[in-house]
Structures are given as C-alpha cells and as structure tokens.
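Convert to structure. Protein one:
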Amino acid sequence: LMEVDMDTALGKLQEQNIDSLRSELRDKGIPYATV
C-alpha cells in the first residue's frame, strides 16, 4: 500500500475540477465571475 499525501492529492483533484468546470462554462457560453 502506497502512502499518499492526501492534501496534495486533493488539491490537485480540486484544481482539475475547477479547470474543467471553467471550460465547461466557457464552452456553453455561461458567464461566471469566480469559481
């Protein structure tokens, strides 16, 4: 079993989710202020 730095892993996952959410909103032409 590998030990994983959960803070780092969750931080990276969160960044990926925010990036994909932003591009989804942009693709659909939905305006947003901050995510």
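Protein two, convert as well:
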Amino acid sequence: MQEQTKKITEAVIDQKLAEKIANIKKEKALDYLAKLQKHQHTLNTLHFYGTTLEEVNIHKSDEYFSTWFQDANNGDIHAMHSILDHFEPLEIITNMGHNYRSRFSENSAEIILDFRPDQVTPQFHYELDGADLLKRPLTLEERKENIKPYLYSCILRIAKELMLYFPLNKISFLVNCPTIKMDKKVLSVTSEQVQYFLENKYGDTFIKTFESTVLN
C-alpha cells in the first residue's frame, strides 16, 4: 500500500513538473511571438518616426548651417548633398542594409532605392502548438505581403525626411527589390500624400491605400 501511494505521489509530482515546464515553454514562445510582432510593426511604421520639423528649424537657424539651407532653398545641389552628408537624415535606411542614390532638381528629387529586406524581415512563419513553437519557411507570396508595408513605409520615410530639409513638392522613386519586382516602375510621392499618411494611423488599409494612390 505504501509503495502504491509512493508511485501515485511521484506520478503527481512528475505531472506537475511537466505542466510547469510546458507553461515556461509556452510563455517563452508567446514572448518571442510578441517580439516578432513588435519588430514587424516597427518596420511598417518607419514613416512616423525620425526628424521633426522643430529639429530642422533649429539646424536652419544655426549660424554655421543657415547658409547651407539658404543655398539649398535656392536650388544649390551641392548644398543639398552637403546637408544630407552632415545631418544624415536617411542613415536608418542604410543602417538597415539598403542603398539609395539621389538626384535633385527644382522642387523635386529622384531616388533610386536598392531595397534589401531579407536582412531584417522574418523568413519563417511561427505558430504556437500547445507549448511548442512551430516554424516553417514563408512562401514567396507570404514574404511579399510581409515586405510590402515595410517597403512603402521606407519610401514615405525617405520622402518625409527630404521634404523636411528641402523645399520639395514631389519625389520620384525607382525601386530595385529582389523579392518584389517593381518592373522598373517609377513611383511619385507628393508632399500632400506624405502628410496624409502621417495624419492617419497605420492599419489594415495601409497597403491598399498606398497602392491605390502612390502606385496607381
């Protein structure tokens, strides 16, 4: 009888230990999924962050840099590039592994963006199965859908930064992306469009709205 009681007690202890381990695994899995979701949201909302108008106005009022901005406002291309090199408003774009080339003209600019999303976007789909975190490679279509909002937000971030620093009404983009084939299509973003996306919270309609306005 004592032996049987001992076995029952051990079984109960083993079950509780297994449940505790499973709960710990599940908590870690949920935490990882939450971090992935937060990371993706950060990528998709880059255009809401960065330089502010107040910061640019401080630069413009600086005795040393005011001449640069005056020359840039008068269309001096060299002054524009000097401002970009010094203040680096697009540093986040290059830090994420992308490259860009810029060309300025009167009240407009052209950007060639070499967009390389695979360095920072997820390559796998994760799903919780009980206490286990399952993963599988994303399909090409799933990767495209993950990358689109990130790409569109990068375009808006670049446009916003350049329009804060320079009197630009429109910026054209030629995007080279190995995953999303843009077919050498030139995108044009106006200052009104940038302002519209800044005034509206990021949500499920972001991709559709961007594609129906900027890509249309």
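The helical segments are 2-44, 53-61, 66-73, 77-87, 91-95, 140-165, 191-199, 206-213. Residues 52-87 form one domain.
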